Every structure is written in structure tokens, then in C-alpha cells.
Amino acid sequence: MVKTLFISVISQKEANRGSVEFQVFSFTNKIRRLTSHLELHRKDYLSQRGLRKTLGKRQRLLSYLAKKNRQFMEELIRGKPMNVPATREDLMIVNMGPHHPSMHGVLRLIITLDGEDVIDCEPILGYLHRGMEKIAENRTIIQYLPYVTRWDYLATMFTEAITVNAPEQLGNIQVPKRASYIRVIMLELSRIASHLLWLGPFMADIGAQTPFFYIFRERELVYDLFEAATGMRMMHNYFRIGGVAADLPYGWIDKCLDFCDYFLTGVSEYQKLITRNPIFLERVEGVGIIGVEEAINWGLSGPMLRASGIQWDLRKVDRYECYDEFDWEVQWQKEGDSLSRYLVRIGEMMESIKIIQQALEGIPGGPYENLEIRCFDRVRNPELNDFDYRFISKKPSPTFELSKQELYVRVEAPKGELGVFLIGDQNVFPWRWKIRPPGFINLQILPQLVKRMKLADIMTILGSIDIIMGEVDRLEYLKEVYGMIWVLVPIFTPVLGITIGVLAIVWLEREISAGIQQRIGPEYAGPLGILQALADGTKLLFKENLLPSRGDTRLFSIGPSIAVISILLSYLIIPFGSNLVLSDLNIGVFLWIAISSIAPIGLLMSGYGSNNKYSFLGGLRAAAQSISYEIPLTLCVLSISLRAILDIVEAQSKYGFWGWNLWRQPIGFIVFLISSLAECERLPFDLPEAEEELVAGYQTEYSGIKFGLFYVASYLNLLVSSLFVTVLYLGGWDLSIPYIFVPEFFEINKAGEVFGTTIGIFITLAKTYLFLFIPITTRWTLPRLRMDQLLNLGWKFLLPISLDIHDMFPMVTGFMNYGQQTVRAARYIGQSFMITLSHANRLPVTIQYPYEKLITSERFRGRIHFEFDKCIACEVCVRVCPIDLPVVDWKLETDIRKKQLLNYSIDFGICIFCGNCVEYCPTNCLSMTEEYELSTYDRHELNYNQISLGRLPMSVIDDYTIRTILNSPQITSE
Questions:
Q1: Residue (of 480, 193, 533) closest to 353 by Cα position
Q2: pLDDT higher than threshold 50 for residue 938
Q3: Integer Cα distance of 262 and 34 in angstroms
Q4: Is there a cis peptide before residue 201, judged by omega within 30 degrees of 0?
Q5: Which of 401 and 692 is assigned the larger pLDDT?
Q6: Whose CB has fewer CB within 10 Å in the chain, the N or C terminal residue?
Q7: Strand, helix or coil at 576?
């Protein structure tokens, strides 16, 4: 009785959701979930801490309610978990991440939903914590520099800049003018690269896959410039205290200017493809709005802050490096939504190009490093093998001491304010090194932004924040196959034809998408990669079939079969020629519509039988989508399908090419095309309401051949839809092309002979696969619609048009009622198609394994080469190595007071190829070759010793040294 009363209290309208009683109820459920979790995972200290916090919050609320109904609440809390039938007002808790790509790393979100509305969001961090701050406190600045690129591995130059800026300001070290210009150029190139790799995944999060491949085209050019100047593409280790590691190579400035000119055209392509796309605007405009005061109170920075109307850029405020010498503007917007954040980042890339061009044109001469910081006071009475080598070193000493001060330094990184709080203690190691990552600060506002939004908007908002977690974080089987083969034997021929058709579609889609995205595409599995789809299908055939432990096994197994069988039955009424149709039932296309209505039942069975909330929601949404678009699809062909299908083709063939129903009912053709795409669940109508962004909808729990059935069903549905378009609108097997006339050639179709039937099949399939180019191109051009937008398009736009499609005047009137919005949407969608199609004829920009890199930079950091005769056993390489990797064995010759090198080794299995040992070696005995670090699978240990080279007589070595050397891998192998 108590539970029932309390449920009636908390399940009222939205007015009670902020009440104290409702909060106590929420905390109680959370405590139960955490307690159940800790019974299985007793060492989950993060959950234990969350449980203690939740208990404290609930206790404070209970104290507040002591005067009212304390006894009532305690009885409720001591009660058993409630089993209440699911209603529309029940809350549902779902998990997102941490393994999904849309999480932009290992981020986990616990989402509380009321239907499709987000009630609460709790980010869970800690999956990628690597202790970067404590590592910094146990390394010198030179040793720590190779580490910092792992914070934000997409904007590595900024992490290096903040690392060297802190000791430079602490020691009042001046940076030469040329070095400052080089730093600005590298920072802005890194900003462009970071924004590009934000843009691609952000568009992929909302369903637009093609921009994700375009951005790599420009980003690879930036990385080519980085490699030529620094020797590495991502982990550069280029900045140094007082300057940079090396000067710009010959011809680098000209190449960078060429890139700037090229990149401006690339950004204009992005704007044409994305900025005015109506589907994109529907997904981002007005989503995740942040006000001015809200942005300041949350401590936001970077594009997150400037998109809310605040013109704050540290390059203008702090005037670090030489930014005040260039003419550029701070990019900002007033609206504060996801679209504004997108526009700010696009504008920043344009401004970065402007800064780079000015810096390249005005870069001064002079040194690229401050030579004065090489000088240090000589230590009194130095002992043998002490730090005497630093006076002959070609680089600043790795023993640079940090004065006893503290300061905070910051730079304007692509994601916001990147800062470091540094405390020196007159030591080579920092006493305190505290990092302020912009992604961590900006992520705090995520729960506030997603509240009262749709589930699909989470991916849009999270993507617009732009986070990088590196800085944020902190034989039944064979029997089933044999049984299936025996079942397919009686209908082997049509199934074989359909299978070949599906494989052809898969191959065609991969080739077209590769052309659009300037990739190579499948090319190794058979000629032109035609066997790749067959190989993928075979892999699914032999994968293990997993069954959910608490699911309904029967429904789980029947669901995929119903989805496939309902689509296969549709092929019974498709005429491939004038005398070739499997079943002429004289009821037209309505049989196909009726049969296709069975498929949602299979989807619902699959979702319900999976015992998974995602799967069940996915089945419901897919069924709702299928039903919503069946009605306009049926109505748009009503006037041409009230006859047998064979008669439809004959009626079109009487008037030749201009008699096709495509020209008689162009609006009907467009409605049929859109509805068929939605029925096939193709972009922009694929699994609705963020299913593709999160999981695979009703397919989530499926694997092996059962998942393969769903995969095949989607392409079977696409093929049958294209065949119906060919029959209903494109004249079927009739081929009449204007201005091309071959007397009596196509009359052979009516002869009824084998050759005529073959020609009819060929013409029908040729039209079908030519039409398939439209849905394939659509998939790689447009982003994904949200569920409410998808239903609005079906019920409010397509349905009214299809109701009057048989009467031209009301149809055109209803179509034009949408006015400029419809025309503008069609214009920008067409513009997006022009951008993607224009890339189809371009050469691919990616190079795939096993292609070899033919050109390397002068500073390319590959496999290390060691010259034994030059080494003086000074052990500089040991002191500058971030992970203490080199091992140097030497013996003191007392007569001449000189060290004799015996053994030198580096384990390439651990080496990170930062190049510190090469750069700081005083005798240049170490060098980097052009051989890739992963060129061989067995990265042998680099080991040199005097005995193996035959240069040291055994008599001069004591027993201990002999035993050490004889245990080395080379001696053992000998």
C-alpha cells in the first residue's frame, strides 16, 4: 500500500519531478543498483565512492523531511524493490559507452529516460587515467616532452608548447623571433588538424559518413608538413626550451603556402556540403544552447565559450608568442547552440590559414633556439663520470633546473584553454605539475545540456563539445548450415540469382563509396575486390551464434527468419521480362506492400526476445518507421498500380522513353523513392532515434548467421525496391532511348524466345543497378534524421502530397504550401550531391598497407643506428630517455682515466622513437634511419659490444664483465 501511494505521488506530471520526495526515490533506486553491482564487482572503488556519496545525499534529504513524513519514507526505503508494470511515465536507465566509437574515447554515460526525453545524465570517467601529472614530477622537462603528446593526441603541438612555456617563463628565457614564428605556424597547423578531426567524427555522429573521409585528405597534408619539419606525423617532440628542435627544411615554406591555397577550397567544399544542408540544420540548430552567463559560470573556454557570444581568445588576451603581429579576428557566434560551435570552428580554420600565410611571408632570419641557455655554472671539483658532458653537448643540458617559484601558464588550444600550474623547487624535476585540460572542464556542462533533450541529441551535443579522453581522464553450428542448405535446394536457382544480386550491390556500394570518399576501396579479394563481399558473408556464416541468457530463445531465433522470408516472397511478383515472372497474381504492387508489412513483426520479435532495452526500443522504432512510410508509398502508386504488373510495363512501352511513368508522375516518383529508402532503413532513414549512433537497434544481441540474415535482408529489401521502381516508373524491360534507333532490334523482346527473355532480364537488371546509384550516393551524402523529424517528414509532408498525387493541381498546391523551405532544402541537398559526386572522378588520397612509403623527411625518426667507435660512454642518452631504455656497460681504464665502452643496447619493443637520444648525443654516434619502426614484426634488440666485434681482448676484462657480456643475446646466439 505504501509503495502504491508513493508511486502515485512521484509519477504525476512534470511539476513533481523536482520535489524532495522524487529525489529521495531516485537516490533509493540508485543505491539499489550500486549495491547489486558491488555484489559482483567488490573491487570497483569508483562505484563504492558513488554509493557513499548517494547515501549522504539521501540522508540529508531525509533529515529535511523529518517533520513531515519521515516514518513513511523509511518504511518505503526498507521495502523490497518494486515490480510495477511498465507505463509511459516510468523512467528507464540506459548505459552509453565506454566502448562505443561515438563516445570519442572511453567515456561512459548513464542516461535516465522518460520515453525519448533525457531526464538525467551522469558521466563516468577514469577508464584512461595514466597519471601524466605524477610522471611529470619524476622526469626532467627534456624527458617529459615525449609524453605530453599523449594528452591530446590530435593537437600535439599545443601540449608541447605549454610544456616548454612553463619553464621558459619560470626561468625568464627569451625565445628568438624566428623560433616564435615557427611555433605559431606549427600551432595553427595543429589547430587545423584538430578541428578537421573534430569535424569528421561530429558529422559521423549524426549519420553523415562521407565528410569523415574528406577531412583525412587535408589532415594528411598537414601531417606531411609535420613529418618534413619534425620527423614524425603525430608525436612530434619538436618544441624545446628556448626555441624548437630544428629549423624548417629547404622548400618547406613553399609547400606550406601551397597547402594554404588548397585548403581554402577544401573548406568551401565543407560549407557547401554541410553548412546549408537542411537535415544537418535540423539536427544541430537550437540543440544544446549555452547562454552567456551559463558559459562563464561553468568555466567554459575555446569554441564553447565563443559560440555563446563572448569574444575571448587567449591569443588576443595574453599575446603570447607573436600573435599580436598578425592581422586576424576572433571567431564568435551569439546563439550558443551546436550550430554556432560548428561555425566557430569552421571560421577558426579560415583564420588559422590567414595567420599561417602572414607568418610564412614575414618569417625572419636568425637562430631557431636560444643559445644562451646552454651555459651553466661549472660544478666545483667534479668527479669522474659526473655531468661534465653537458659542456660539450650540442643541445641544452638535460639538467635544466627549475627555480623556486610557482606560476600558471596557458595557451589557446583548439578545444579551449590549456593550462599548466608549475611549482619549481630548485631541482631538475618539477615539485608540482598540474594540468588544466579544456576538454575536462567543458565536459562538465554535458548533463545540463542534454536534460529535456531527445536521446539522439546526446551524440550531437557531445560531438559539439569536442573532447579527447586522453586529456579528460583523468558444433550445432554446422548442423544449422547443413539444414539451411537442404532447405534451399528446391529453390536453389532463384536464391542463387538473388544472392549474386545482393553481392553485386554490396560490391557496388563499396566501390561507389570509395570513389566518393577518395579511398581505394576493396581491391585485394579477387579482381577489383569482387570477392570481398563473399568473404564477409562467409565469415558471418562461421561465426559463433550467441543467445541472450534471459531472452526468449524462440522469438530471438524466429525474428531474423521472418524478416528475410517476407522480403523473399516479394520477388514472386516481379516481372523480369515479358514472359518471365514467377507468379502473376494480377493484384499488382499491393501484394508486395502487404508482404513487406510482415517484416516489422520480425523486428519486434527480435527486439523483445533479446531481453535488451536497446533492442526492444530499436524494434519499436523500426516498426513505427515502416508503418509511417508504407501509407505514402502505397498512395503514390495508387493510380498506376490498379492493374496487373505486366500491364503497367506494357502501358509504358506504347509511348517509348517519354511514356515512362517517371515523366507522367515525377512527384510520385520522388515520394516513392523517399518512402522506399525509409522502408529499406537506408540513410537518412536508417535505424531511427540514435540507434546507429549508439548500438545496432534490434540487431544488438545478434551475431553469426542470425546477424547475417538481418544484413542480407537490408540489401534484399533495397534490391526489391529498386526492381519495383524499374517496373513502375522506368519502363521495366522496355528500352527506348531517344535519338538512338535500331530498326526492329528491341522487338525481339516480344518474340517469346530464349534470347528475347535474356535481353529482357538484362535490360531490367541494368536499369535496376543504374537506379541503385541514387540510394547508394544518398547514403554517403546525407546525415541521419532524428526520430521525430523522420515521423514529421512521413506524416506531415509525404502523406498530404501522396493523397493528392493523382490530381496534379492539388498536389502542386500542397507541395508549394511549404514555400521557400522546400525549395531551399532541395537546393542544398542537391548541392551536397554535387560535392560528393564531384569527388568520384578524383584520385584516391589514402595509401593502404602493404604500400611502402617512398619519400621520407630529413628528420624522419625510424629505426636507430649506432656507431660503436664514436661512443664515449657519456650516458647522455640514458639521462634524456623518457623511459630509461638505453643500457650502457663500460669499464674505466685507470691508466688514461678514460671509459672504455663494452656493451650498448636498446630494446625496440619498448622504444617510443622520440629521438631524444639522437638529438642530445654529443658525438653523433646515434642516428635515425629511414626504416620504419614497425617494418618487421620481430623488432630485434639493438645490441653492440666489443667482443662480438672482435675489438677487445678478453684479458682486459674482469670476470664480472665477461659474465655480463656472455649473457647478451648476440653472444648466446653465437
A1: 193
A2: no
A3: 54
A4: no
A5: 401
A6: N
A7: strand
Smallest CA-to-CA distance from 316 within 417, 207, 199 is with 417
Phi, psi of 41 (to 5 degrees): -125, 80
Written as nine digits, the cell of 791 is 515521423
With beta carbons less than 8 A apart as the criterion, state whether 896 and 158 touch. no
Residue 358 has pLDDT above 90, yes or no: yes
What is the rounded CA–CA span in Å between residue 382 and residue 402?
21
Whether the CA torsion 217, 223, 225, 231 is positive or negative: it is negative
pLDDT of the residue at 194? 93
Find cell 566518393 and name the residue.
Answer: 516
d(CA 636, CA 661): 12
- The pLDDT-based confidence of 66 (bands split at 50, 70, 90) is low
Label residues 620-630 b or e (16+ Cβ within 10 Å = b).
bbbbbbbebbb
CB within 8 Å of 861: residues ≥ 6 apart: 231, 232, 913, 914, 915, 918, 928
CA nearest neighbour of 715 among 507, 546, 544, 483: 507
Report long-range pairs for 311-318 (Cβ below 8 Å, ≥24 apart).
Answer: 313/412, 314/410, 314/411, 314/412, 314/417, 315/412, 318/410
The answer to whether the peptide bond before residue 98 is cis (omega within 30 degrees of 0) is: yes
| Cβ partners under 8 Å of residue 645, min gap 6 | 573, 574, 575, 581, 584, 588, 589, 727
Closest by Cα among 663, 672, 671 to 814: 671
CA-CA-CA-CA dihedral for 703, 708, 710, 715, to nearest 10? 150
Written as nine digits, the cell of 364 is 625572419
DSSP letter, residue 839: T
- Mode of pairing for the β-strands spanning 942-945 and 887-893: unpaired
Beta strands in 135-245 (DSSP E): 239-240, 243-244
Reported pTM: 0.73
**697 conformational bin, left if phi > 0, alpha if psi -120 to 50, beta if neither:** left
Q: Residue 334, class by beta-carbon neighbours within 10 Å (0-12 exposed, 13-18 middle, 19+ buried)?
A: exposed
Separation CA 725–CA 388 (nearest Å): 83
The pLDDT value recorded for residue 25 is 65
All 3 cell numbers of residue 782?
Answer: 546525407
Q: Give the residue, 712 or 853, on which the prediction is more confident.
A: 712
- State how far the alpha carbon of 941 is from the alpha carbons of 180, 889, 903, 904, in Å: 39, 15, 13, 10
Q: Which residue do the cell numbers 564477409 mark?
A: 536
What is the per-residue pLDDT for 152? 86
Beta-carbon neighbour count of residue 211 at 10 Å? Answer: 26
Instruction: Evaluate if residue 201 carries a pLDDT over 60.
Output: yes
**For the chain, what is the mean pLDDT?**
76
The string of pLDDT tens digits covering residues 287-300 is 999 999 999 999 99
* β-bridge partners, 847: none
Contact predicate 629/678, CB 8 Å? yes
pLDDT tens-digit map of 150-164: 888 888 899 999 999
Unique residue bearing C-alpha cell 667507435:
869
- Work out the pLDDT band at 799, boundaries 50, 70, 90: confident
Query: How confident is the model over 681-689, as a mean pLDDT?
Result: 70
The answer to whether residue 970 scores a pLDDT higher than 50 is: no
Tell me the mean pLDDT in the region 598-617: 82
Picking from 215-219, 789-793, 877-881, which range would have the lowest pLDDT averaged per residue? 789-793
**903 and 943 Cβ atoms separated by less than 8 Å:** yes
- For 393-420, what is the mean pLDDT? 80
* Residue 865: all three cell numbers together: 643506428
CA contacts within 13 A on the Cβ side of 390: 17
Buried b (16+ CB within 10 A) or exposed e, 635-671: bbbbebbeebbbebbbebbeeebebbbbebbebbbeb
C-alpha cell at position 787: 526520430
